Q: What sequence folds into this?
């Protein structure tokens, strides 16, 4: 269990840090000067190995799950991150999404956790997708693999998204992603994990009228030829569907952790989040040893992150 958690979380964090210095830089610029290693400064003027809100919010959820599933506690951790600099690499927040900020403002005003997330079309940024990975390990411990398609599991994933992003589209994206990660944990190949997860999600949502109309937004990843699409047809914006597509495409079209996350970063635009999302999957699939040692050495607060992973592992065996 410990190795599974560390593989995924460190895979996410390292990829996030690779993308931070070049966030918002366009693809053409990165084609001329591609990221090949950890960089210093750049977009946010941060030292090499600095991670963003993607990792911070992931750690908030990771730490909270060590005490069980408690939506109030998760939101309190998010609040500590935003207002106190907890779960940050250097004690301060330098990046936050609009929908996430609005959700935390609602929580600060006493709104219940599951009523804080935005529900409009414009609330489909990738802010819940980027930090949902830790729920995979909670599900791994509490549910057998054959139970993963049960409605209870889908509802739980939806609720974790809803804390900041309550639109059905964001919930579907999170469910597909968590399912892919879970299948990788259980030893499936990349291709089978992705196809199985997409099939399971479509099969589940087609019987739920609240979600059926949203499935059209995910039809591209259902195509058998999706991984063969040229890079020019893969978007890397902060839109949740773009991020999910880019992550799946990078995972399926590469054969190592390093190649996968560098491909994600060099797509440009929302570099840290696209890389973080696929980095979690690649970390699970390829393992911690696949991550270049220099990248792990450069990562800020590596021991702190590993400590939170161990804390979650211990909570499962107690």
A:
């Amino acid at each position: 269990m410990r190795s599974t958690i560390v593989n995924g979380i460190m895979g996410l964090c390292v990829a996030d840090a690779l993308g931070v210095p070049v966030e918002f830089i366009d693809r053409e610029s990165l084609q001329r000067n591609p990221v090949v290693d950890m960089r210093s400064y750049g977009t946010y003027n941060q030292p090499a190995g600095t991670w963003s809100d993607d990792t911070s919010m992931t750690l908030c959820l990771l730490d909270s799950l060590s005490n069980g599933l408690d939506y109030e506690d998760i939101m309190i951790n998010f609040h500590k991150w935003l207002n106190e600099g907890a779960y940050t690499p250097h004690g301060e927040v330098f990046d936050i999404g609009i929908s996430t900020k609005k959700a935390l403002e609602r929580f600060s005003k006493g709104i219940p956790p599951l009523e804080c997330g935005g529900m409009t079309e414009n609330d489909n940024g990738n802010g819940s997708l980027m930090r949902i990975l830790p729920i995979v390990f909670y599900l791994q411990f509490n549910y057998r693999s054959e139970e993963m398609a049960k409605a209870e599991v889908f509802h739980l994933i939806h609720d974790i998204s809803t804390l900041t992003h309550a639109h059905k589209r964001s919930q579907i994206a999170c469910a597909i992603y968590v399912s892919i990660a879970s299948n990788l944990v259980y030893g499936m190949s990349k291709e089978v994990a992705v196809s199985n997860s997409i099939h399971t999600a479509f099969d589940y949502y087609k019987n739920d009228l609240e979600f059926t109309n949203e499935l059209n937004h995910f039809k591209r990843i259902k195509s058998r030829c999706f991984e063969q699409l040229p890079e020019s047809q893969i978007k890397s914006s902060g839109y949740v569907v773009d991020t999910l597509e880019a992550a799946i495409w990078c995972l399926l079209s590469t054969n190592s952790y390093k190649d996968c996350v560098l491909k994600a970063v060099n797509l440009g635009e929302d570099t840290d989040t696209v890389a973080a999302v696929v980095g979690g999957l690649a970390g699970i699939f390829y393992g911690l040893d696949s991550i270049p040692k220099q990248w792990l050495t450069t990562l800020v607060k590596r021991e702190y992150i590993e400590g939170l992973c161990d804390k979650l592992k211990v909570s499962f065996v107690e």
User: Anything to note?
Assistant: Residues 2-108+125-317 form a domain with the ADP-ribosylglycohydrolase fold fold (CATH 1.10.4080.10). The chain has one domain: 2-108+125-317. The chain has a mean pLDDT of 96.
